[in-house]
């Protein structure tokens, strides 16, 4: 919020925090454990500038996460194409709106990057080369490697 104020030199303008949600374990269909590809949804939370405090924001984010899990995970397998199009249209409108600050927060905490065996062993370190978009906050688990 302070970065936005600093960049704009005025009060906050509308902002959207897009948080990635892994839907694999939430769907009613049985999916293979080694299924490859992205299977996730996004959610947004809205708050007025005058009402922003950390506790309220955290509560809104938690509610948004639960809503997307309930709403979209149940639809997968029945009207998946329509559901994906609905999500894409909603977020495309937000992303294309230049009057809104967009922040992206993918969480890779529960993905099994360190357990993936590529034929030469499991990785000791996982990272991303770059993100082609601005305002990205990546949340990952760091694996400690101890040598004795």
TrEMBL record:
Pfam families: Transferase
Gene3D superfamilies tied to this protein: Chloramphenicol acetyltransferase-like domain
Any one Gene Ontology molecular-function term assigned to this protein's record: acyltransferase activity
Coiled coil regions, renumbered to chain: none
Keywords per UniProt: Acyltransferase, Transferase
UniProt KW Transferase keyword: yes
Record keyword Transmembrane helix present: no
InterPro entries noted in UniProt: CAT-like_dom_sf (IPR023213)
UniProt record similarity statement: Belongs to the plant acyltransferase family.
Full protein name: Deacetylvindoline O-acetyltransferase-like
Species this chain originates from: Prunus avium (Cherry)
GN (gene name): LOC110771679
């Amino acid at each position: 919020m302070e970065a936005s104020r600093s960049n704009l030199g005025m009060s906050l303008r509308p902002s959207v925090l897009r948080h990635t949600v892994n839907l694999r374990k939430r769907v009613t269909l049985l999916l293979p454990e080694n299924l490859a590809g992205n299977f996730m949804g996004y959610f947004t939370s809205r708050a007025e500038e005058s009402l922003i405090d950390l506790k309220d924001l955290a509560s809104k984010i938690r509610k948004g996460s639960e809503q997307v899990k309930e709403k979209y995970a149940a639809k997968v397998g029945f009207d998946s194409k329509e559901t994906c199009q609905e999500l894409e249209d909603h977020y495309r409108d937000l992303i294309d709106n230049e009057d809104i600050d967009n922040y992206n927060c993918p969480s890779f905490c529960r993905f099994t990057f360190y357990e993936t065996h590529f034929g030469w062993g499991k990785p000791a370190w996982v990272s991303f080369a770059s993100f082609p978009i601005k305002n990205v906050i990546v949340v990952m688990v760091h694996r400690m490697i101890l040598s004795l």
